[in-house]
From TrEMBL:
Record domain D-isomer specific 2-hydroxyacid dehydrogenase catalytic: where: 15-294
Name of this chain's protein: D-2-hydroxyacid dehydrogenase
Family: Belongs to the D-isomer specific 2-hydroxyacid dehydrogenase family.
Keyword set, alphabetical order: NAD, Oxidoreductase
Amino acid sequence: MQGIEATAVVRYTREDGLAEALRGADALFVYDFLSTAVPGAWHGADRLRWLHIASAGVDPVLFPELRASEVVLTNSRGVFDQSIAEYVLGVLLAFAKDFARSSQLQSEKRWLHRETERISGKRALVVGTGPIGRAIAALLRAAGLDVAGVGRRARADDPDFGTVHASDELTRHLPDADFVVLVAPLTEQTRGMFDARAFNAMRPSARLVNVGRGELVITSDLVEALRTGRIAGAALDVFDTEPLPTDSPLWTMENVLVSPHMSGDFAGWRNALVEVFTDNFQRWRSGRELRNVVDKQLGYVPSSR
């Protein structure tokens, strides 16, 4: 931020001082991307023109007053794409190669030979066709999986997915997938999209991977699907309540991998987020087009593909 401080007055604040810090401010950088303080402090935004959030998801700041305003909203898409794709490939391999069981047996000093699965030739359905979804598709294809996508509109010639199915036809295509990867943005259309009906459409041998938003999934329906063997397992990096409550049954299910919202957090990610904002700030000061402008009605940055 030193380059910005040389050309602008920068105010640093915590949540309780946000409303006052917003008075007279032209731009707001929401570095704490999990904070929900912006709506409550919005009355202080008397001249704000631009809001940037240090995440790909914008749901914490996409409240009605911002949607209705002329304030430009940008996000930090592009920072976490490859890291999240690597996480997805990692958990698919962990399931297929039974790493959790191997770790348990090692702790017990037990030598138990088993056969494991191959991921090559398996089918993955990636729900969400933005940059993160495309990075996931590319890496899974390189590992030998057959990949398709689910997005707003169907198309058969997508350069990264090949076939993209329309989101309103999701349940028709869930039975085809060995792995279902959620990376869709959280919108009114996607909230709770994975419910009992969706889980009932999946293969009993299928695994769910959620690296998008916890609210994409109805947690109670997921727990029931896992408990009854309706689906074979889940790798979950995001949850509708974070931190995951200690009494959640997800912690102790043998067919569940839990990680604390860290799939994209590579060493150096904080600096990378600041660099995205700094670049956009220089663009903003010079009147150039901003990167990653969010369509506030859609809830994400529209893709050209």
